[in-house]
Design goal:
heterodimer; A: 8 helices; 0% strand; B: 140 residues; mainly alpha
């Protein structure tokens, strides 16, 4: 069954299609949730809430492409994750992301880690690193330019 | 800043990763409706990020999906089913033209018919009675 048909089935609320989307992206979304520092039990609850919210959203407003659903899943997961969670789990980023963060210089790496991995708003990251919000914004923007080039090179 | 420079800032990658500010998210949501270039680039970015995100090594436990499924099933069961609309009498007046009459008008019509029939019967009864009295008086 092709992706478009699966997305149509998802819009109709078919459980087989929901399982298909879950199998495809649950690992990636779970990894993002765990990297915010919450414990595994809370992470599983956030994961369940995330998919629940996205399935409801897809039934209301279908998307033609599963990759649009990935973006929606990542955005929803970040929104549902509690801010400033204590780091109770040690997680490893996917290999490509890990290589990219290793290639950043120390301040940019710290900003990217807090904003991306720990899901902190820019102001919180600025306070944690004792930098101005403008500097954090600038470092994150520079990191994103590098991230784009890095992804294109792969 | 032109569109290509805007894309080169990595804002679309930031958007897909979900780390844009609410203002940036609103800006991209607006731009993706207007610009086919943004839509095409966003799809390309989503593909690249999907590739980068795979092989995460953090697989959720097997029972995690069952929890979602249970919640979805419960939600579907508790969702009140939309009641079917009350049946309406429909009359064909002319070809392709129909008239729908509410149940209240139909009740009112039946009540009016009963009242008219009662009036007619009582009128006939009293007429008959007065007529027989009249006949009796004449015979005397």
């Amino acid at each position: 069954m092709n992706e478009q048909v699966q997305m149509e089935q998802l819009a109709a609320g078919k459980s087989a299609a929901q399982q298909w989307l879950y199998d495809r992206y649950a690992g990636a979304v779970y990894g993002v949730i765990l990297r915010t520092g919450i414990d595994t039990l809370a992470a599983q609850q956030v994961l369940a809430q995330t998919f629940d919210t996205v399935f409801a959203a897809l039934a209301y407003k279908p998307l033609p492409n599963p990759r649009h659903a990935l973006a929606l899943l990542l955005q929803t997961a970040r929104r549902l994750c509690p801010a400033d969670a204590e780091a109770t789990t040690t997680t490893v980023s996917p290999a490509l992301l890990q290589q990219f963060t290793d290639s950043l210089d120390t301040p940019a790496n710290a900003v990217f880690h807090l904003c991306y991995a720990r899901n902190q708003p820019h102001e919180h990251a600025a306070a944690t690193l004792q930098l101005s919000p403008q500097t954090v914004q600038h470092l994150l923007s520079t990191s994103m330019v590098s991230f784009r080039k890095y992804l294109q090179a792969q | 800043m032109n569109l290509q420079d805007y894309i080169e800032t990595g804002i679309l990658e930031k958007y897909v990763l979900g780390i844009t500010s609410p203002q940036e998210t609103a800006e991209i949501n607006h731009l993706r409706k207007l610009s086919p270039e943004i839509r095409a680039e966003l799809t390309a970015v989503e593909k690249r990020i999907e590739r980068a995100m795979t092989g995460t090594g953090h697989l959720p436990p097997v029972h995690a999906f069952d929890k979602i499924q249970q919640h979805l099933d419960w939600h579907a069961e508790t969702q009140p089913a939309t009641p079917p609309p009350p049946p309406q009498a429909t009359y064909n007046l002319l070809q392709n033209r129909t008239m729908t009459i509410s149940i209240w008008w139909r009740c009112a019509f039946i009540a009016a018919c009963i009242i008219i029939i009662a009036l007619v019967m009582s009128t006939m009864y009293f007429y008959d009675r007065s007529h027989s009295l009249e006949q009796l008086l004449w015979h005397r």
